[in-house]
Design goal:
By secondary structure, this protein is α+β, with helices and mostly antiparallel strands. Helices cover 16% and strands 24% of the residues. The protein has three helices and nine strands; from the N terminus they run H-H-E-E-H-E-E-E-E-E-E-E. The radius of gyration is 21 Å and the shape is elongated.
Length: 184
């Protein structure tokens, strides 16, 4: 969402918060997460609590409730553009590689990754992405070509997070697959 959502058309600064939801309230995305589906929630950074999750009423001269006069329709339109950008990127991209594995059969300072071949006929190849364990975003990319087994020399699987993504001939990238530990 962040990679494709920040552009001239959206005029948005997309900030990913790595938490299920805000304290003392929850969005519609939670039920999807509970069923095992990836889900995201959009919200303004500076919420006005009187205008959300409240019964419509006036108390001590303060209007409470989620009413049309409190909606920033320009912001809603920009959020829709972020969603459209993300959905377009997902629709154009190859599927995420299946059965991604990090091979743990032996102790070594190299990291070996394997995954299944993607079904797309226009597949250019794959990329290994990695980051330090205290980073939240993929910071490094290694193009590996159209292979399904790759060993990264002198990078211990114990010290980094790794992932695999597919890339088609037009440069569209799949979501990243996180490898599970496996002996082969």
């Amino acid at each position: 969402m962040e990679d494709v959502g920040e552009n001239h058309d959206t005029q948005m600064d997309v900030q990913v918060i790595y938490r299920r939801d805000r304290y003392l309230r929850g969005g519609d995305h939670i039920s999807f997460l509970q069923q095992g589906y990836p889900a995201a929630r959009f919200t303004e950074g500076d919420e006005t609590y009187e205008h959300e999750h409240q019964n419509v009423r006036v108390e001590n001269g303060v209007q409470f409730g989620d009413l049309p006069q409190f909606v920033d329709f320009d912001y809603v339109a920009r959020v829709a553009r972020v969603n459209a950008s993300a959905l377009t990127a997902l629709a154009r991209a190859p599927v995420a590689p299946k059965n991604a594995r990090i091979i743990t059969a032996q102790l070594t300072n190299d990291t070996q990754l394997r995954w299944n071949t993607n079904p797309e006929p226009d597949l250019k190849g794959y990329e290994i992405v990695w980051r330090f364990t205290d980073e939240s975003k993929w910071t490094h990319t290694i193009p590996v070509g159209n292979v399904t087994d790759y060993t990264i020399k002198n990078m211990s699987k114990d010290n980094f997070f790794f992932g695999v993504r597919a890339v088609d001939n037009e440069g569209h990238r799949s979501p990243v697959s996180f490898p599970r530990p496996a002996s082969s």
